[in-house]
Amino acid sequence: MTSTDAAPAHPASLTARRPHVPAERLLAELVPPRHFADESFDTYRPDSSHPSQQAALDRLRGVAGELTGAQRSGSWWRRRRASPPPAVYLDGGFGVGKTHLLASLAHAVGEGAAYGTFVEYTNLVGALGFLPTVEALAGRALVCIDEFELDDPGDTVLMARLLRELADRGVALAATSNTLPGSLGEGRFAAEDFLREIQALSDRFEVVRVDGEDYRHRALTTDAPSLEDDAVRAAAATVPGATIDPLADLVAHLATVHPSRYGALLDGVRLVAVTGVGPVEAQDVALRLVVLVDRLYDRDVPVLLGGGGPERLFTAEMLAGGYRKKYHRALSRLEALAEAGRALL
């Protein structure tokens, strides 16, 4: 913020926003998010103590070379009828760079790639209809699915059918995991459970492991003191484009907005301030917060939390339960965003 920035008298509120997202925007936004806009295979730094990271990088470079080579030669349509298209699944813990690698693959393939989260694709089907969605994506060389969900059986079956249709039309696929309970195995996704959920694709997907530690925790100091609500309000008032809401009001509002619209909820927002931060008790409320944190992280929107830090959001039971991988990923990302928010002070 510069000295010439005019401070708003009253920061805006996320709860006052009810975004409408037309289908055209859903299609146009099937690109890697802002946080990964400049990432590439060259900017990924494999940890030498975890060789699977280099192996994953090499494999995805190979996939990109195969797809871009086929496009340059003009033989893409003939080749994709002759042999099954590549289908890779990045399996690993949070903070090891799976999304970085997936975004790098999409960037390498270029305009022929579609990139979105699981919930964005299911919402696209809801907006366009199943067959129009297939037609809209069938012309792509590659479809990338970040945060593949197994939370909702209906959505999982829908996505399995969509991926089968696209693979049958020769579209290459790449996905990362987002797990459900009992499928974690050492804190990671159990590949066999994923493959069972998409039975028709089980012989096409190649599971690529990405082991390692959460790089965000290696880079951050997460024991910073909590902020008082008054300090958060005062700071938000000095940042143009800031919003501020009590946590209770924010989570109530999120229940009225489809998760696929949480990104649009943040249009033009430069800082999200939340007061009265404390544990959320209900699982559905906590999972909606996870989606919001993911969209904040995608868009590099700093946060300020008053009353308690990120570690206070989820209960011990949640952090030890079936959705623990989601919650720990959200905490890792939220700590990074809170650090950026504290830097504004």
UniProtKB/TrEMBL annotation:
Keywords: ATP-binding, Cell cycle, Cell division, Nucleotide-binding. Residues 1-21 are annotated as: Disordered. It comes from the Bacteria. InterPro entries: ATPase_AFG1-like (IPR005654), P-loop_NTPase (IPR027417). Pfam families: AFG1_ATPase (PF03969). One of its GO terms (biological process) is cell division. This is Cell division protein ZapE. It comes from Cellulomonas chengniuliangii. The lineage of its organism: Bacteria, Bacillati, Actinomycetota, Actinomycetes, Micrococcales.
